[in-house]
Amino acid sequence: MWQQVFLPVAAPEEWQDRETLWNAVEENEKTKDSRLAREFVVALPIELSKAQWERLLSDFVSDTFVSDGMCADVAIHDSYPPGHNPHAHILLTVRPLDEKGKWQYKTEKEYLGRTEHSE
């Protein structure tokens, strides 16, 4: 199993330790029932090597989430027998960090609709 924590540039270095990261996330929230993280489970192609999985995930997480200020805790699982069901868990902070390393507001969803007119 491979795991890695991905942090924006402004995040404290000690957050590379996943326990320290998630303790900091929990400490920042004020209510007992706050949502602390989002999880994505992604399938990995069996045609790729483990090194290629790591590179694929590293690029995806960095470009998609970390570039927007999110912290990500990533782990690859390849159940027994190997190659049977390779997948990765991506655990993201709900709040992004700003360029000074301060937690921002939780992100908001924006839905864009397209209207078609027929004549």
Major beta sheet, strand line-up: 1-3-4-2
Count of DSSP-assigned helices: 2
What is the gyration radius calculated from CA atoms? 17 Å
Share in helix? 10-25%
What's the mean pLDDT score?
89
Q: Point out poorly predicted stretches.
A: none
Distance between the termini: 57 Å
Structure description:
This protein is of the alpha+beta class and 119 residues long. 22% of the residues lie in helices and 23% in strands. It has 2 helices and 4 strands; from the N terminus they run βαβαββ. Strands 1-3-4-2 form a 4-stranded antiparallel β-sheet, with helices on one face. The longest helix is centred in the middle third of the chain and has 15 residues. The mean pLDDT is 89.
Q: Helices, strands, pairings?
A:
Elements: E1 2-6, H1 18-28, E2 37-43, H2 50-64, E3 72-78, E4 86-93
Antiparallel strand pairs: 1-3, 2-4, 3-4
Descriptors for this entry?
119 residues, 22% helix, alpha+beta, 4 strands
Provide a quick synopsis of the model.
With 119 residues, the protein is an alpha+beta fold.
